[in-house]
Write a structure and sequence with these properties.
heterodimer, A: mainly alpha, Serine Threonine Protein Phosphatase 5, Tetratricopeptide repeat, 2 domains, 9 helices, B: 733 residues, Immunoglobulin-like, Maltoporin, Chain A, 22-stranded antiparallel barrel, six-stranded mixed sheet, 42 strands, 6% helix
């Protein structure tokens, strides 16, 4: 009898542990995402990036931790006084690793374009010429890869707004795309639960852009 | 959609988990207390605390980020032998084997070394100027080449605003630091280009045959350049063609001097661009009076094909082919007479090249290429008919090995096949030579740390016709002074065979030689660039001859000379909003005995004081860029037989040219560009042609060598057509 209980216990232990490792990944991601939302300094940001990189290291087939590491790296470069070029370059490097795991991923493609947007912002006069078409192409590709990805459409509308400002043409096109992305964000929100770890960011930026629209 | 039983199952799993944990707790009680605490410090090479380092156990979640004092501390439940990893952006990762034994584990202090990359390390800037979108020592950007007003869209025109160059307005080619135009070696993707400039006659300045839109970046060296290049005493100009095009589009251009269309087809793996252009200055010259008496205005057509293809993961194959044909004819006055002679010129030119670059495993990069250029000139001078043919085949292979981030080596082999001939058509007289040249080179870069780099190179060559072998050692070093300033030094020896029309007269002519010494200071920070460079170079075995350049005799390697000087460059894109300007001053003191000159003289192409200012301002509400450029030098030396018997005893008045341009972008896909050179209409003179005999009053009559016209006015409309509405001509501007 004792033996039977022990066997059951051990087999249950094994089952539970394999469950545990699945949820351990999710739990770790949820925990990291919470810390990501609390970032106030570049130092904390580095800690969060490191956290995502550790999760990536322990889960080799997962693209999400790499995606978030690159995203955090990018946001850090936008927000804080760091060596921005180096942060963007590193983010690009990590994005490439993520793309190797998940090659036709709309979110990764959109993030790639977003990082290049950051690179352009550092020296628009000289980088805009060669990088802008690349960025537009990446956002176009991201939309084609997943038509329900609000970030791809949102980022494309950001580029459109920049272009319309430069050429003095109205923001109509950018606004149309922004409205489209708003719908997609709303659809996405229906899916979001406490355990949702896929990307959800970008709505605030989009709402900011909408201020240019009537 | 949520599965209705999901919550229930979750609860059951959690309950089971609790039950199991209970057993687990009792069975393996010791383990619950079996946490190992890992702590230690991370420093950089200089012993300064390194915050932000990711310290973790390989394959697990446990880890921490080092704090401001470089310390880290974390707990792990893992046991036994584990690998502790130290990872930080810009630094080499480090690993350490540890044993977790459920206790406090103090790790020895770890020192991370910074990774040396192109972006964070010092670069050799002696003699070197880079035009690209990225890179640290960038002086010009590709866009600057087309938007410099005096350049009129010619690559060489833009480089004439850079330090170390002088403007020779009736020539148009690039003259570097007291050297003549043949001393600049021109390369496309590492492959030598024969006859890169269009053939011209009289005093009509020439242009580069290649459109600036072909290139993504340019590396221009005014001395002390890499062992990869040779056969150029003064300078190497390396043009790099664009990689894969991003999208399919058509580009239409309509100009006062002609028009063209170019079409690109692209996908992710390949792209191909085909273009055709036609130029004829006839209608323009019909409207605006010219100083030169043209019988037929300069005209030309060209067809070009460029294709790129990705091969494998890291390979890129590029192919380019171009053919063109052009000509002009004009009346040239003979000094001291009323006579004019007709100079008639026809030129056919073809260039083709293919190159392939790929990165192999274990840090090898391989490049192979082949190029072919053929130039055929038909020159009619009065009743004389001359046919000149020049061919150049260049085959090249290089291999680069990165041993580490501190040491890399380049090895290369090159072979040239070079037939040249001149023919008097009516008489049927031919003289020619057919050279074979072979080169071997190697170059080693060694970074002692990221602030100090040494480069050593060696280039050996052999020529069949001159029956000569030679060796050129080159050396340079760069040192980062403070955050943004750096010092570089370069020295080297350079060989160049004489120009073809001399070699064909005496095939025994040997290489001319030059030695360079260059000291450079470069400072760049947030939109400011300041560059100062001083140099000395010696010349030996220059070609000298008896008689005049149009009929040289008894050619030999009998000349020598020197050039020394200093130049300054300042660029500011920061201080004034939407404004970018640069100022260049070059001082060159050069003397040499060469060509017909028996004594050491200042060559006509080496003015002493050279100044150039370029200003560009973008007016956002008008969607316009205004540009102005001003060039000055203190005059060209020439020999005036009316003064005395000495050579180069006179100097022209100073050269001045103010050019203005206006680019208007009314729509994303449309650019209208208007430009005018020499707005002030200064009557620039580049020298004088003297009659060979004195007139009855004992005076040698002369004709000034002036400009084709006081001003050159250009209007162009550039339209981009693409399915992708976001496409715009900014990519080509």
């Amino acid at each position: 009898m004792k033996k039977y209980i022990l066997t059951t216990a051990l087999s249950l232990l094994w089952i539970t542990l394999s469950f545990a490792s699945e949820s351990a990944f999710e739990e770790a991601m949820i925990k990291q995402l919470k810390s990501k939302n609390m970032i106030q300094t570049a130092e904390v940001a580095q800690d969060v990036i490191n956290g995502f990189m550790r999760i990536a290291e322990a889960n080799e087939g997962e693209w999400l931790p790499l995606y978030y590491a690159a995203l955090t790296q990018t946001e850090t470069a936008f927000r804080f006084d760091v060596n921005k070029d180096q942060y963007f370059d590193q983010a690009l490097e990590i994005t490439k690793q993520a793309a190797q795991i998940s090659p036709t991923n709309s979110e990764i493609t959109a993030l790639h374009g977003y990082i290049l947007m950051g690179k352009i912002s550092l020296d628009p006069g000289s980088r805009g010429q060669s990088l802008s078409p690349q960025v537009m192409e990446l956002f176009g590709k991201a939309i084609a890869q997943d038509r329900s990805n609000p970030r791809a459409v949102n980022l494309m509308s950001q580029m459109e707004l920049g272009m319309s400002k430069f050429f003095g043409s109205g923001p109509e096109k950018a606004c149309g795309m922004a409205r489209m992305s708003l719908e997609l964000y709303q659809k996405e929100e229906e899916k979001i639960s406490e355990k949702y770890i896929l990307p959800t960011w970008g709505k605030d930026q989009m709402m900011e852009l909408m201020k240019n629209c009537n | 959609m949520k599965w209705p039983f999901a919550d229930l199952i979750q609860i059951r799993i959690e309950m089971k988990a609790k039950f199991i944990l209970l057993i687990y707790f009792f069975l393996f009680q010791t383990l619950a207390f079996g946490q190992t605490i890992i702590s230690g410090f991370v420093l950089d090479e200089k012993g300064i605390a390194l915050p932000g380092v990711n310290v973790f156990i390989k394959g697990g979640y446990d880890g921490a980020t080092s704090k401001i004092d470089g310390s880290y501390r974390f707990e792990t439940e893992l046991e036994g032998y584990q690998i502790l990893v130290f990872q930080f952006m810009g630094f080499k990762s480090n690993q350490l084997s540890i044993e977790c034994k459920a206790e406090l584990l103090e790790i020895e202090t770890i020192i991370l070394t910074e990774e040396i990359t192109e972006m964070n390390s010092v670069t050799i800037s002696a003699g070197a100027m880079e035009a690209s979108d990225e890179g640290k020592s960038v002086i010009l950007r590709p866009l600057d080449i087309v938007t410099t007003p005096s350049a009129m869209g010619d690559i060489m025109g833009a480089f004439q605003t850079l330090p170390g160059t002088s403007t020779v307005g009736n020539d148009g080619r690039l003259f570097v630091r007291g050297g003549d135009a043949s001393e600049v070696g021109i390369y496309i993707d590492g492959m030598r280009v024969g006859n890169a400039y269009g053939t011209t006659a009289g005093n009509v300045p020439t242009r580069t045959r290649f459109n600036p839109n072909l290139f993504k970046g340019t590396f221009f060296s005014t001395g002390g350049y890499s062992a990869e290049y040779g056969q150029a005493l003064s300078s190497a100009l390396a043009l790099n063609t664009k990689d894969l095009s991003i999208r399919s589009q058509g580009d239409l251009s309509i100009m006062t001097v002609g028009g063209g269309y170019s079409h690109t087809l692209a996908n992710e793996k390949h792209s191909i661009t085909a273009s055709a252009n036609y130029f004829n200055l006839g209608p323009y010259q019909g409207l605006i009076k010219q100083e030169i008496d043209f019988e037929a205005a300069p005209n030309a057509w060209d067809v070009e094909l460029a294709a790129q293809k990705k091969t494998g993961k890291n390979g890129l194959l590029k192919v380019m082919a171009r053919t063109e044909s052009g000509g002009m004819s004009l009346w040239q006055l003979l000094p001291g007479t009323d006579r004019k002679v007709l100079v008639d010129l026809k030129n056919d030119y073809s260039y083709a090249q293919a190159n392939w670059r790929t990165i192999l495993k274990n840090e090898w990069t391989i490049f192979t290429g082949i190029s072919y250029s053929k130039n055929l000139d038909l020159i009619g001078y009065d009743s004389l008919q001359i046919e000149r043919s020049n061919e150049l085949i260049h085959i090249k292979g290089t291999a680069i090995k990165d041993f580490s981030d501190r040491l890399s080596a380049k090895f290369g082999v090159e072979h040239f096949i070079h037939p040249y001939s001149e023919k008097l058509v009516r008489e049927g007289w031919v003289r020619d030579f057919d050279d074979r040249e072979t080169y071997l080179f190697t170059e080693w870069d060694f970074y002692l740390n990221k602030d100090l780099v040494f480069r050593g190179g060696l280039r050996g060559g052999a020529s069949k016709v001159s029956e000569e072998k030679w060796l050129d050692p080159r050396f340079s070093v760069a040192y980062q002074l403070k955050e943004k300033g750096q010092l570089s030094f370069a020295a080297g020896s350079f060989h160049q065979l004489p120009v073809d029309n001399f070699r064909v007269l005496n095939t025994d002519l040997q290489n001319s030689e030059s030695n360079h010494l260059i000291l450079n200071y470069l400072f760049s920070k947030d939109g400011f660039t300041f560059r100062a460079e001083t140099f000395y170079k010696s010349y030996d075995n220059l070609v000298t001859f008896e008689g005049l350049p149009d009929n040289p005799e008894l050619l030999k390697n009998g000349g020598s000379g020197y050039a020394k000087g200093i130049d300054f460059f300042f660029r500011d894109r920061q201080t004034f909003r939407n404004t970018d300007y640069w100022v260049t001053y070059s001082f060159v003191d050069s003397k040499r005995s060469f060509n017909q000159f028996q004594t050491e003289v200042q060559p006509s192409f080496a003015p002493k004081h050279n100044l150039s200012v370029v200003v560009k301002h973008f007016i956002v509400p008008f969607k316009s860029q205004l540009g102005a450029s001003f060039a000055y030098n203190d005059g060209y030396s020439y020999t005036n037989p009316n003064v005395d018997n000495s050579e180069m005893n006179a100097k022209t008045k100073s050269f001045q040219n103010l050019s203005l341009s206006w680019s208007y972008l009314p729509k994303p896909n449309l650019i209208i560009h208007l430009a005018c050179t020499n707005v002030l209409g200064r009557d620039n003179v580049f020298g004088f042609t003297f009659s060979p005999k004195a007139n009855t009053e004992g005076i040698f009559e002369s004709i000034p060598q002036g400009q084709v016209a006081p001003r050159f006015l250009f209007l162009g409309i550039f339209l981009t057509l693409s399915k992708d509405k976001t496409a715009n001509n900014l990519n080509n501007l």
